[in-house]
Write a structure and sequence with these properties.
Number of helices of chain A: 11
Helix content of chain A: over 70%
Oligomer: homodimer
Largest sheet of chain A: none
């Protein structure tokens, strides 16, 4: 028999995700979650037995929403090299509030590490998923002659994933945008800048299909 | 008049640094610190008014010990390209316990961010110091023809600092060594492998001088 629920579980997860993202796991109390979500403690506990269970659900929400959006953006441009370039340059050009908040996965990786193996596995698999998507676009880029000679798409994808994490760390402590941009440009130097890049109809369709 | 102290302040700081490094700021209680350092609460408070003050002192200790050691290692080889290569390959080959613990600066950057501007500034300046040291060695490498054409030492140093942070994040959640090594190799591809590299007497002297 389905439980009756007087609140929107999607909105609850969104709020929980936001709260953990801003404050981290330890700094977030069940009280904070009750306040932020507007859902009574008893109702929260009726679905999530403890704070950790809601945290895991919040991480999964983040994977859908934020990682999903990243994957979509990687496919927004027909030119694979340009899609990868713009994605990474966009990291350094994000609104300041977004930069300061960092990434829930990065923050959780360093906060909790392997102390919670289930959470660590979720994070590793998100990293692996992003890396695969990057690697696929970089393989397309190589086939189109957009990569410097000898550059292996898989290795460059791995480097870029590492850079992504590093940017998330540095932006948390207010390292200047200009420096973040230079680091990204260093990593992108193996990708030749396209003469022209447009969001083509095919690119938009592809992005939509993946969203 | 100097306060009388019945304990070794260096050992206290070492223990405090280790505790914060393993557990983070939030997860470390004053009780934990009393237990770990063996110094009475009253004596701790006689020098450090609160947990944060001891944390800041622990971070400064880390800068001396760990960042100092990094700077020394960057100067251990006469060949600048080889010194940089070995330093970064060494990150991925560190003992597993060290990999899992990550870096106190990285962990603190994501845990606290700009909420504590003094701590954030300490972290930024440590990053800048490491980056300058890298940049200097990479400029030497360029002058010796050890860098690929067109590579700017400053930009490569910035990329490598970002990679360093990224490695620290990924190793916290148990990303395999092999993958860390590939990411590092991707970043090092602009440095030509030396035909031979030795810890020369001059290199050892330089490293000692900086230690």
């Amino acid at each position: 028999m389905p439980r009756s629920r007087e609140f929107d579980e999607g909105a609850l997860l969104e709020d929980a995700m936001e709260t953990f993202w801003r404050q981290g796991f330890d700094r977030t109390s069940v009280e904070n979650l009750v306040e932020r979500t507007g859902v009574h403690r008893a109702s929260l506990y009726s679905i999530y037995p403890d704070k950790r269970a809601l945290f895991v659900a919040g991480i999964k929400r983040y994977l859908d929403v934020v990682v999903g959006d990243n994957l979509r953006r990687l496919n927004e441009y027909d030119s694979p090299g340009e899609a990868v370039r713009r994605f990474f340059l966009g990291l350094a050009d994000a609104p300041i509030e977004r930069l300061r908040r960092g990434c829930l996965l990065t923050n959780t990786a360093t906060e909790i590490g392997l102390e919670d193996p289930e959470v660590a596995a979720l994070i590793r698999s998100a990293f692996a998923r992003m890396e695969r998507a990057l690697s696929e676009r970089l393989a397309e880029a190589r086939d189109l002659g957009q990569l410097a000679a000898g550059v292996q798409p898989r290795v460059l994808a791995r480097l870029l994933m590492t850079v992504l994490q590093g940017i998330r760390v540095m932006s948390r402590v207010g390292v200047e945008r200009k420096l973040l941009r230079e680091a990204v440009n260093g990593a992108l130097s193996a990708i030749r800048p396209a003469a022209s890049a447009r969001r083509t109809a095919a690119g938009r369709r592809r992005a939509k299909h993946l969203a």
